[in-house]
Amino acid sequence: MSDGPASVGALLRATPPDRLPEVFAEHLHTRYAADSVEVLLSDLSRSVLRPVLDPEGPAGGPLEQRCFGSQQPVVEPRADGGTRLLLPLTVWGDRLGVLRIETRLEPARELTAELTTFAGELALALRTADRDTDRYHQVRRKQRLTMAAELQWDLLPGRSLDGERFRLAGALEPAYAVYGDHYDWAVTGDRLTLTVLNGHGDGLEATLLTTMAVNAMRNARRSGANIVEQAELASDAVYARHGGNAHVATLLLEIDLSTGSVEAVDAGSPRAMIAKAGEIRQITLEQQLPLGMFGDTRYEIQKFQLEPGDRLLVVSDGVHAAAPGGRPQYGASSLLTGLRRTRLQPPSEAVGTVLRALREYHADIDPDDDAVIVCLDWLDQPE
Q1: For the whole prediction, is pTM greater than 0.85?
Q2: What is the pLDDT of residues 126-183, one digit of tens each?
Q3: Is the peptide bond before 308 cis (omega within 30 degrees of 0)?
Q4: Homologous superfamily (CATH) for 5-138
Q5: Could you tell me which residue ranges the PPM-type phosphatase domain spans (predicted)?
Q6: 2 pLDDT band (50/70/90 cuts)?
Q7: H helix runs in the chain, sequence order
Q8: Among 16, 44, 112, 161, which residue's CB has the most CB atoms within a 10 Å radius?
Q9: The domain 145-378 is classified under which CATH number: 3.60.40.10, 3.40.50.720, 3.90.1170.20, 3.30.70.270?
């Protein structure tokens, strides 16, 4: 069998899910004269790249972070004539981490291209393996999660997604103890469905409420329902369980990937904005009742249009309404400043920039709510 992507993929598919890094490293030792191999996975807050093969080894440094941020290989010739390669581990735009390889082979474009492709095979295998082993979950966390956070993270679709016409990323913070804010997305054919939610209350009860709403909307969506039917099914489910004593503020969006036309159901507090060329404008929608507030609530679709080069941003009230220590709400002016800092960043970097600015705004005051931001770039033309 030739040593190409297909053979590497077959090797990984035949490997137990918790042994992928070791088998992949052994393959590189044998076929590519690798002196050392390390798989570095991003932690939940995307602030650290943590090693898998040697858990006690050093975390990723500036070069690894550069590779993770730029999504481009980093190649360094070694003094002995060999090569040090840092390669992104990414699946459909979802950034998992970085593969670090030290090999005795000389730097060459063909070597970098081949190993970059192999890194993609490993990334796909690691993402799939998450369903069947806890090993990579354990590496990605710096501390123990609360039960609410565990449920919330398992419910998320991913942290970034790329398509021909869009780049999409989402972030949830704080990472290790959350209170019900959430985002969800799915792409099928020429439709991208995106939701941002804020569950009523805090702790485990808020997360269970959000879990019910998200799964109700997924159930409707997977049955072919539009966003009005998704909202109404979720609202009915929440009301049937809580009788109007709990609700879920939700913004549902469905984007036509062929035209950029957006249908929206605004059922609460998340806010949408469009940024372009340094200018930011809020999308004005008629706010309807949060999900589950009353029985038999009915919703209506509103529409707006994405133009080439637009950046769509959606934030939960933990971002725009944050007022630590009685300060003015973050959304009053500081949020716009934070968003402008992201103008030249891809969505996967932009969401982190906004949340870091929000942390700075809180200074030494602990947040009293989750913060969710979702960023979508509508590209000038299909790639």
Answers
A1: yes
A2: 999 999 999 999 999 988 888 888 998 999 999 999 999 999 999 998 867 777 889 9
A3: no
A4: GAF domain (3.30.450.40)
A5: 161-378
A6: very low
A7: 5-13, 20-32, 62-70, 109-129, 135-140, 147-155, 203-222, 227-242, 317-320, 334-340, 347-362
A8: 161
A9: 3.60.40.10
